[in-house]
Amino acid sequence: MPTLSMKSKKWLLSLHILFSAILLGTSVVFLILSITAAASNDAGLVLASYRSMHVLSDTSIRASTIGTTVTGILLSVWTHWGLFKYRWIISKEVLTLLVILIGPFGMHIWTLRGITLLQDTGIGGATQGAYVSNSLMFFTGIGIQIVALVAMYLLSVFKPGGKRGRS
């Protein structure tokens, strides 16, 4: 495997941090917009919140998830860290799979379903089972996404668990 020069490693690491910061920031925006939608009785505001989140799920979340994943893999492969040498990296890989499922896929589905339910039933239908169920899954997904992303930051800083033993 090719190895990176120190300058190239710093550039790749900078891109990785930038993409992951965009992903975390967008996830926090999702949290704010979902709380706004849940707390409002204004149909226009609720629908606008869901539409904004849908646009973000198709753009910022998708691009930053791909960027973070690709740069993370390249950093692992092109440096001494490796993909499976350290427990903290394996933990980040598992959390990355979770973030991929929740981010580009879950957020897209939940926002689209929310928009459809709101357009079909209006704000009065926001108390119906399907909308409430979707909102709870969506809110839970946002929470899991943020916790997983913060955990990945902490794993990167503290690097717990050390190197895996040989089997």
Automatic annotation (TrEMBL):
Superkingdom classification of source: Bacteria
Alphabetical keyword list: Membrane, Transmembrane, Transmembrane helix
Residues that span the membrane, as ranges: 12-39, 59-83, 95-116, 136-158
Keyword Transmembrane: yes
Designated name of the protein: DUF2269 family protein
Organism of provenance: Paenibacillus whitsoniae
Lineage of the species this protein comes from: Bacteria, Bacillati, Bacillota, Bacilli, Bacillales
